[in-house]
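User:
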Amino acid sequence: MSQADFSMKTESYIRILAGTLVLVSVTLAHFVSPWWLLLAVFVGLNLIQSAFTGFCPAEMILHRLGLGNEAGPAQPEHKP
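Assistant: Predicted structure:
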């Protein structure tokens, strides 16, 4: 298998980042302060606005870091 077989779409990275931030937010709200739930609210609102506007700050950061691609995972070639 080539490294291209393991590449991920930018959308997958966004979902991983958002899910991680929500889990961190809930954990911090439980152990530190309920105010940490505002982080989860921010993440949720950002996901909603990005669905309507197409603008996602996390996506721009991921592209600058060189993570993700628009084409998605490479598909194996089917040879007849």
